Sequence to fold (257 residues):
Amino acid sequence: MHEGGLWSEVDVVQRTGSTNSDLVARAAEGRAAEGAVLVAEEQTAGRGRLDRQWTAPPRSGLFFSVLLTPGEVPVERWGWLPLLTGVAVATGLSRAAGVDTALKWPNDLLVTVRGEERKAGGILAERAGDGGVVIGVGINVTLKEDELPVPTAGSLGLAGAVSTDRDPLLRGVLRALEEWYGKWRAARGDAGACGLLEAYAAGCATLGREVRAELPGDRAVVGEAVAVDGDGRLVLATGEGVQEPVGAGDIVHLRPA
Fold:
């Protein structure tokens, strides 16, 4: 990390339950400042959205969390942080691993393995106290077919990465995250003004597809994903001719783009 940059400290632990839980706790106790990065060689209780488990063999992936305190950005725009992180991860991996990745709204990282789209990573954002957000990233790096948690999962190695050395991969992702976070903060969270909205839409595999959004309260909406709006919500054009923005929920891709 470079002098005067965002990343104030990088702490690597051999094993922990969840880097997100640990960093949220450190922030609450005043033991972590903005730019703290916590990396684990192995996570035993990693979490995805909706408290799903995320497990992988030791040293097979990148598992890390960062603490951000975007005080000058209105809180209603903080929902862009997981999407911003997705753009940064895709940018960093393209540069460092030579792998084309795509983003599934809102927080999945997709790679192509033998012509098939597979999930190779995920992003989880959690509030940390009044003014902070901890963002966790998990990326399958070297997992082989027989190590995948589910057949629909993938890894950078299976997708033909030119490098699976986790140190330059981490540095590449953190560098891209610092760049995008700086632009977004300077624009006070205006994703359109800083180019984030355009970059996210360009890399989003969900747009142009027929999808089913499984929403809170056991409600589902089926439609074509036509846009991401200024608040980071996915806009669905339904069969009834209605455009419905979705701010939270599980998205199922029903057909190829």
User: Anything to note?
Assistant: Residues 100 and 119 are 13 Å apart (CA to CA). The helical segments are 19-28, 80-97, 166-186, 196-203. The longest helix spans residues 166-186. The chain has a mean pLDDT of 92.
